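Sequence and structure are no longer studied apart. To make this concrete, we show below a single chain and its fold as tokens.
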Amino acid sequence: MKPVRVGLLGLGTVGCGTVNVLARNAGEITRRAGRAIEIEMAATRDLSRSRGCDTTEFQLVQDPMEVVENPRVDVVVELIGGEQRAKALMLRAINNHKHVVTANKALIAVHGNEIFAAAQTKNVMVAFEAAVGGGISIIKTIREGLAGNRIEQIAGIINGTANYVLTGMRDQGREFAEVLADAQRLGYAEANPSLDVNGVDAAHKLTILAAIAFGIPLQFDKVYTEGIGQLTRGDIKYGCELGYQIKHLGIARRNGNGIEMRVHPTLIPKRRLIANVDGVMNAILVAGDAVGPTLHYGAGAGADPTASAVVADIVDVVRALTTDPENRVPHLAFQPGALASVDIVAPDMFETAYFLSLTAVDKPGVLADVTRILGDLEISIEAILQKEPPGNENTVPVIILTQRTRERHMNQAVSKIEALDAITRPVKRIRVEHFND
């Protein structure tokens, strides 16, 4: 049987990793796929630049459209990133009846509904395992391995840069900007790390996970998103004193009003496994009604882990080339006509516990005023931590841990607390999740 020929769009870190994995494991890959997989052509902006992979066995071009239009290419692998250009190339490849593999989470999260509809019309596959979790294979796990379950909840550390920064702040007692600079120097963060630290990268990934878990269309614009830039080493220290770690999580879960989709810093009890995932590693908790809670851990980025997912997608495409299109695994796990129209829960309807950090004038009665405000809104207090005034200042840090309440009630409470004359700074809130239900 003749080899399946692949065209690569992009020869950066992941592109070269894909070349290396296909070459290094060619025999094993052929045995698994049933046919040899060969790179026919690759597009790269700089033809003369030295790379960490051998490109002598295939043609290099600068224009990615040459790859997409090449009649010898069976599968196009998009690794250039971005949205509009990548979208145009993918839609053109699909129109040319080529199967497509991508690691581009922004592209799938924002334009996936359109791309999947085009692919269905042309009876081709779009594979995107590498878009979430690097080498963890979480998409295949949810879409296929847990197909017998009603998924109740997903919660994940899905951005390695944010996790590295929070780990460094905790272990080294340093502030956000210092640890982020280290992450950039070590190559864990981009020169412009805004998508990572502002939570947008995690929101892209959560959009995809929620769609395949709950059988809903991709809805990136409805993900509530907070980054980690406002966190201080004091927040992390006080969280630790109360028995919690702070992690930047993507959370998608069912509740009585629909589906919650949110990305934000989260306090997790130290005893939970996911609270102990450090550095650039990823971990994703998936809870199903039959299997219960499962935790999936591994490298979320890097050349070889991401290339592992890309090559696995290529193998899946090759295996399905002769399959009746009606019997292929659906892109979003559920049959296209069976995607549900479920409400996405508005942020003020979220229900969680809270860590509140206040700066208050050191005088009698302030704490009583704060607790009265919380009590009037039926917000129960779990713990209070009041620290000594720093230096000669007349203000003190006060930490309050609440029990679960609606976000709208907490919004009201925070507004009233900030209106007190004795509260000198905006109240900081961090949501708390226990993952024990």
Remarks:
- The first helix runs from residue 13 to 24.
